[in-house]
Specification:
disordered N terminus; elongated; binds heme C; Cytochrome Bc1 Complex, Chain D, domain 2; mainly alpha
Length: 145
């Protein structure tokens, strides 16, 4: 009995030694660059203005920043979605994030990812200034809701 258990013990050692030291690691390419997927988008908090001069300035910024190249406001889809009513279908914080960092949003936000699948163009980061431009864009978009 004793000698049998020694043999078994040896067999176990041999079996353990013949196991590969480490299994090959199959690396899966991440769906999105990790640094973008993890980026926290800071958005300024403000009450959206309904004052006519702010709305007019928003319309001006909308043109200056090139938004009109891809978006209509009423009249249907262009390269991107029609922005009429966007303030009704999404919350302000989401819209602010999308305007400030569309590049990050289409990597980490499910709604933005879905929009990208529908439009097949990445909205580029237009370098909208969070203080001097973003509040006016929101005022304009709200005014055409
Ligand atoms: C080169 C084309 C392009 C430009 C320029 C552009 N966008 Fe976009 N935008 C898109 C596309 C395409 C989407 C859909 C998401 C995606 O595919 O990236 C989008 C999505 C959006 C959305 C979300 C719409 C929804 O239905 O939820 C908002 C808001 C928006 N853009 C605002 C702007 C504003 C404001 C500007 C100007 C500062 C701008 N965009 C400039 C192409 C553009």
């Amino acid at each position: 009995m004793r000698s049998l258990s020694v043999v078994c013990g040896l067999a176990l050692v041999v079996a353990a030694c013949s196991e590969p030291q480490s299994k090959p690691v199959v690396e899966q390419a991440p769906a999105a660059p990790v640094e973008l997927a993890a980026t926290v988008i800071e958005v300024p908090e403000f009450v959206v203005s309904t004052a006519a001069p702010d709305i007019a300035k928003g319309l001006e910024v909308f043109g200056l920043k090139g938004c009109t190249a891809c978006h209509k406001v009423g009249g249907g889809r262009l390269v991107g979605p029609d922005l009429k009513g966007v303030t009704a279908r999404r919350d302000d914080k989401w819209i602010k994030k999308m305007i400030l960092r569309p590049d990050v949003m289409i990597k980490q936000d499910d709604v933005a990812k879905k929009l990208f699948v529908e439009h097949l163009t990445e909205m580029p980061n237009q370098n909208v200034d969070p203080q001097s431009e973003l509040p006016f864009l929101l005022a304009y978009l709200k005014s055409v809701e």
